Structures are given as structure tokens and as C-alpha cells.
Amino acid sequence: MKRVSLLFTLLLALMLPATVSAQITDEVLSRRPQTTAPVAGDAIQEGNWMIGGSIAELALNFKSENYGFGINPRAGYFISDNAAIGAEVQLAFETYDGGEEWRYGVTPFVRYYFPEGAAPTHRWFGEALLGIGGSSVEDSEGDAIVSRVYGVRAGYAHFVAEHVALEATLGYIRSNADISVGVTEAGLAAGLGFQIYLPARRNQ
Q1: CB 109 within 8 A of CB 77
Q2: CA–CA dist 78, 197 (Å, integer)
Q3: Which residues of 157-190 are buried (b: 16+ CB within 10 A; e: fewer)?
Q4: Signal peptide: which range, if any (predicted)?
Q5: Whole-number pLDDT of residue 183
Q6: Which domains are present in the chain?
């Protein structure tokens, strides 16, 4: 009987730390910031709105060794499930050997979230944009005050909350704003940003 009692006490002593550790682990996990939410399908329904934009952009120009960054606030409306139209304001600052430049523009866009590779917590998307832009630099009397801005982007949206997604994009943008007429600039641009998805009343 003493052996059975001793064995039971030993087992209890071995199990107690594991139980306490599990409780502590569960408590720590419950206090972690939310990093994912399975709401991608609900967020991109017809009638919903999205508001946000790029909060950091790193650009590499093919024609020169210029570097820059910018912010691109935007708003869009889902005309159908997975497809949205909207407009983006482009504000950018660029430095180069011998000076600096401010860029600005307004570019309507069309965005489509691909069903292929979709998951409850994330979506891949592509978008095309076409608008006008300008610059603080005027090199000659023939400079255009504003000019076309157009391009395409691919991106990844990861939903971190019910109505919020973090985004990463990579795109090709082309413009000849405020540089000599007939000369264009083209380059790759990578961006990081966020979107807030506002559900339509019928989708709530």
C-alpha cells in the first residue's frame, strides 16, 4: 500500500509542472497580438469599400541611379466579388546626384484578387493604374507640367484583423512627367502598406 501511495505521489509530482506549464503557455498565447484573421473572403465582397495605401515605397530607376520613397493614399469600391476600382494619390520624394525632386499625381486603378491560391487569411492580387502626374523639377522650357503615369502591380494581402490587411507590392511604373518631352522614365517599385476594408450594409 505504501508503494502504491508513493507511486501515486511521484506521478502527481511529475504531472503538476506540466499542467502549470500548459496553463502558462495558454495564457501567454492568449495575450499575443493578433497576427492573422480568416476573413479574406468577407472583406472583398461586392459593395465593400477599401481605404488605405502604401506607407513606404523604395524605388529603383532603370535609367539612372536614383532612389526615392513615397506614400500613396487610396480608396476603392468593389464592383463585384474580388474586383475593385478606385483612385490613388501619389506623393513621392526622390534624391539623386546634384539635387532632389518631389513627385505628385492621381491615378485611377483596377484591382483583382485571384481565387487561385486563395486562403481564408490571405489573397494574391494584381492591379493596373493609369493617371496623370507631375514633378517639382523643370529642366527646360519644353517640360510637361503633367504627363501620363501608368503601370501594373502584383501584390499579397495578409489579413491581420477583421477589416485590416497588410500588403506588399511589386510593380512597373512608367511616366514622363516634368521631364523633356519625348523622354520617359520607367522603373520597378516595391511597396509596403495596409488596407482597411469597410463592409457594405448588406454584407454586415
Answers
A1: no
A2: 10
A3: bbbbeebbbbbebebebebbbbbeeeeebebebe
A4: 1-22
A5: 44
A6: 39-198 (2.40.160.20)
Query: Phi and psi of 18, rounded to 5°?
Result: -65, -40
**Rg from Cα positions in the chain:** 26
Neighbours of 94 (CB within 10 A): 19
At residue 7, what are phi and psi to the nearest 5 degrees? -65, -40
* Ranges in the chain, pLDDT < 50: 4, 20-21, 24, 28-29, 140-141, 179-183
Q: Provide DSSP, the chain.
A: -HHHHHHHHHHHHHHHHHHHHHHHHHHHHHHSPP---S-HHHHT-TT-EEEEEEEEEEEEESSS--EEEEEEEEEEEEEETTEEEEEEEEEEEEEETTEEEEEEEEEEEEEEE-STT-BTTEEEEEEEEEEEEEES---STTB-SEEEEEEEEEEEEEEEETTEEEEEEEEEEEE-TTSBTT--EEEEEEEEEEEEEE--GGG-
Q: Parallel, antiparallel, or unpaired: how do β-strands 122-135 and 83-96 relate? A: unpaired
What pLDDT shows up at residue 41?
85
The whole-number pLDDT of residue 149 equals: 85
